[in-house]
């Protein structure tokens, strides 16, 4: 019988965002771009928002990266470790990455060894907006960071 780490890809990257809301599409666009790279040992997921069911997707991973648009904060992006933390976002319909990690730790008994957040700065989030030029540039820079990160891990 195979062990869980032999069944799932060691790395999971989850893009979060709504493609119909301008720069909120950054997470899903990042996943689209990563799919074209056909990264080995990597599973890619995208959704409008995180839900508690994603705790099952954390099981057996060596690394998890969440990618989402940020309405404020560092430009062009912020990338760093993510801690498990219960917050007020935890509902039956939506959950923040930190709250998902906290739920995963409670349900699964542990966290993936490496969990990071890539928050790509966005500016325009209204329904029907197109991706802004500045957010598109930020996405390019974030993709370069992810490619360097993947190359470093593969080495």
H-E order: HEHEHEEHEH
Parts with pLDDT < 50 across at least 5 consecutive residues: none
Number of domains: 1
Gyration radius from CA atoms, angstroms: 15 Å
Approximate helicity band: 25-40%
Structure class: alpha/beta
Overview of the structural elements:
The protein is an alpha/beta fold and 155 residues long. It has one domain: Rossmann fold, CATH 3.40.50. The protein has five helices and five strands; from the N terminus they run αβαβαββαβα. Strands 2-1-3-5-4 form a five-stranded mixed sheet, covered by helices on one side. β1 (11-16), α2 (26-37) and β2 form a beta-alpha-beta unit. α2 (26-37) packs across α5 (133-154). The longest helix has 22 residues, at 133-154. The protein starts with a helix and ends with a helix.
Q: What can be said about this structure in brief?
A:
The chain has 155 residues and is α/β, with parallel strands linked by helices. The chain is built from 5 helices and 5 strands; from the N terminus they run αβαβαββαβα. The protein has a single domain, classed as Rossmann fold (3-Layer(aba) Sandwich).
């Amino acid at each position: 019988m195979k062990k869980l780490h032999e069944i799932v890809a060691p790395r999971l990257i989850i893009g979060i965002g709504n493609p119909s809301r301008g720069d909120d599409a950054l997470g899903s666009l990042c996943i689209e771009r990563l799919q074209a790279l056909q990264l080995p040992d990597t599973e890619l997921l995208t959704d409008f928002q995180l839900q508690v069911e994603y705790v099952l997707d954390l099981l057996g991973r060596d690394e998890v990266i969440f990618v989402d648009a940020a309405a404020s904060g560092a430009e062009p992006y912020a990338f760093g470790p993510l801690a498990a933390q219960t917050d007020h976002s935890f509902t039956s319909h939506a959950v923040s990455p930190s709250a998902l990690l906290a739920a995963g730790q409670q349900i699964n008994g542990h966290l993936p060894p490496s969990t990071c957040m890539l928050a790509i700065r966005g500016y325009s989030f209204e329904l029907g907006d197109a991706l802004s030029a500045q957010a598109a540039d930020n996405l390019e820079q974030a993709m370069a960071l992810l490619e360097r990160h993947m190359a470093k891990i593969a080495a």
